């Protein structure tokens, strides 16, 4: 899927002038995640995006990825991006977010500490529901931020359930 995104961006990306060159200032960060059917692991290709956070029964932690250059900077990137694989446990949640959350600043100019706030809030939650995680982050950032920024803010949360056998 990662290669398909690159090909589509190259084919449909904006160009500068009539010579077909792409604008080096136009790029996009991306986090491509896949959970194979019947699996309790996530495969991640990170193209310059904040790493996802696992939220579960014992707080929260960030998944280690191998970030590569954002999409659209293909000429500068290596031949292929690294896919990292992370095991997940039933009852854990996975949160992907844009930097509009992690870069929100309070009145002292301090960035919103998304990992620490999630760890504190869900330390004793046996299996946090995705809606509760999203609701908490949205409300907490609103209280934290000194001003309303125009930066993108998007959250994607999911919970890991029991793997099901493939049906035939």
What does this structure look like?
This protein is an alpha+beta fold and 168 residues long. Helices cover 23% and strands 23% of the residues. It has 4 helices and 9 strands, in the order αββββββββαααβ. The strands form 3 sheets. It has a 4-stranded antiparallel beta sheet with strand order 6-5-8-9. It has a 3-stranded antiparallel beta sheet with strand order 3-4-7, with no helix packed on it. A two-stranded antiparallel sheet has the order 1-2. A hairpin with a 6-residue loop joins strand 3 and strand 4. The longest helix has 15 residues.
What is the strand and helix layout of this fold?
Layout lengths: L1 H11 L2 E2 L4 E2 L7 E5 L6 E7 L5 E4 L2 E4 L20 E5 L5 E5 L1 H4 L11 H8 L8 H15 L10 E5 L9
Antiparallel strand pairs: 1-2, 3-4, 4-7, 5-6, 5-8, 8-9
Helix pairs in contact: 3-4
Roughly how much helix do the residues carry, as a percent range? 10-25%
Structural class: alpha+beta
User: In DSSP terms, counting alpha (H) and pi (I) runs of 4 or more, how many helices?
Assistant: 4
Provide mean pLDDT, rounded: 82
| Spatial strand order of the main sheet | 6-5-8-9
How much of the sequence is in beta strands?
Answer: 15-25%
**Element order, helices and strands?**
HEEEEEEEEHHHE
Shape: flat
The biggest sheet, with number of strands, parallel, antiparallel or mixed sense and barrel status, is: 4 strands, antiparallel
| First-last Cα distance | 25 Å
The radius of gyration is 18 Å
Number of strands: 9
Uncertain parts: none
Summarize this structure as a short list of keywords or feature phrases.
single chain; 168 residues; alpha+beta; three-stranded antiparallel sheet; 23% helix; 23% strand; flat
């Amino acid at each position: 899927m990662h290669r398909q995104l690159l090909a589509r961006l190259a084919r449909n990306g904006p160009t500068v002038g009539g010579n077909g060159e792409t604008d080096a200032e136009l790029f996009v960060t991306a986090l491509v995640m896949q959970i194979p059917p019947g699996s309790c692991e996530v495969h991640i290709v990170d193209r310059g995006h904040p790493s996802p956070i696992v939220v579960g029964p014992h707080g929260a932690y960030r998944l280690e990825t191998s970030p590569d250059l954002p999409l659209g900077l293909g000429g500068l990137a290596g031949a292929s991006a690294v896919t990292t694989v992370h095991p997940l446990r039933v009852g854990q949640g996975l949160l992907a977010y844009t930097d509009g959350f992690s870069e929100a600043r309070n009145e002292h100019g301090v960035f919103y500490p998304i990992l620490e706030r999630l760890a504190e809030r869900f330390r004793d939650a046996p299996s946090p529901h995705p809606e509760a995680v999203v609701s908490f982050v949205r409300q907490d950032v609103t209280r934290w931020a000194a001003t309303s920024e125009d930066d993108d803010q998007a959250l994607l949360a999911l919970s890991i359930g029991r793997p099901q056998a493939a049906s035939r």
